[in-house]
Target: MFS transporter
Amino acid sequence: MTTAGRRSSLWQLPAVRSLFALNVLGFLSYSVLISALPAQATRLGAGLTAAGAVTTVFLVATVLAQLAVPLLVRRWGLAPVLAAGLVALGAPSPLYALADDVRWLAVISAVRGLGFAALCVLGGAIAASVVPPERRGESLGIYGLAVAVPTLVTVPAGTALTLAGHFWVVALLATAPVAALVFVPRATRSVLRPGADAPAPDGRGAVRAALPPSLVLLVVTLAGGGLLTFLPIERPDGALAPVALLLFGLTSALSRWRAGVLVDRVGARLLLPAALATGVAGVLLVALGLTGRGGPAAAAVLTGALAFGAAYGAVQNLSMVLALRRAGTGPAATVSAVWNASFDSGTAIGAAGVGALAATGLGLPWTYVVVAALLALALPTAVVVGAGRERVSGSGPRPAAAGPPRRAG
Model:
């Protein structure tokens, strides 16, 4: 605590370094498949709706399991639950390469979703517990960088490998969470335990506090799910989709990291609405670019992906910091579950809903315009949440299971 309390580098903390490595490996499995798996489903003959449903099944299983993670940690402990989650996420991944039907892809995804839930809810526990509150945004920024780094490289790489007929390589790369097991002991050793005089947690209050910023996050991840799932399907030939996803991952990683430092210093009053407005512009540019071909159209898609990536990363960090601040010292495990459920629900809705709407005859470009309108409708909520004050609901250290959320992602 004392090391983190000074303005020294948080990278000096062994727990932060272990957490970074653990999440890079854990989220590599998520990001390498998020666009590759729907593309593989279409190669097996699935339509747009069925291809998006594979991602939806994975995320629905994740959301449902997230609600049980705090209970499992209280029963079995933080390290065993996190380790089991890493195994469940990584070990079944090679089975994707053996599947010849989209239904088997969905079954494997459901199992992996259970493991992903544990990583999502518990992955940020150390980031909140080893630094004082005034450095939490920076710590979560480092954590977000660990989650975003795999997105930077593996989303476009997984898509390119799958479109080139090398999906088996993607399936093997997705086993990376198993290697992350070696970092679990050091990453969990420094997590604070609740004191004997800690007040009873206000679970309902934490849910109410986390809902508004999580609603903003849900809309942004809905747009992200629609972009990551269907851009490679809409532009399967050439380098446009992989390059766009590379730019998306780059700006998402950098903005999530730097937004954490900025929110500690200047607050979220202007940052959250500005990030959301940038996302609106980015999605509109992608929609515009998909209506044409050639250099100007490609430039619009790439610029839009870059802008939306910046919004996507920043909103992740800002919304989680605001959710924790609004909950005060309430049960952060509950805040984490609400935040993560919103993230994954939004991504699942985007993966299924964008494809279903586009398949009605509206087409993907106009569907993205509808998505941009949804983002714009969330701007008033972002203004109110960003200007809100912290709610204090108790005192004392947080439980071991009380980590803030993650991603990425």
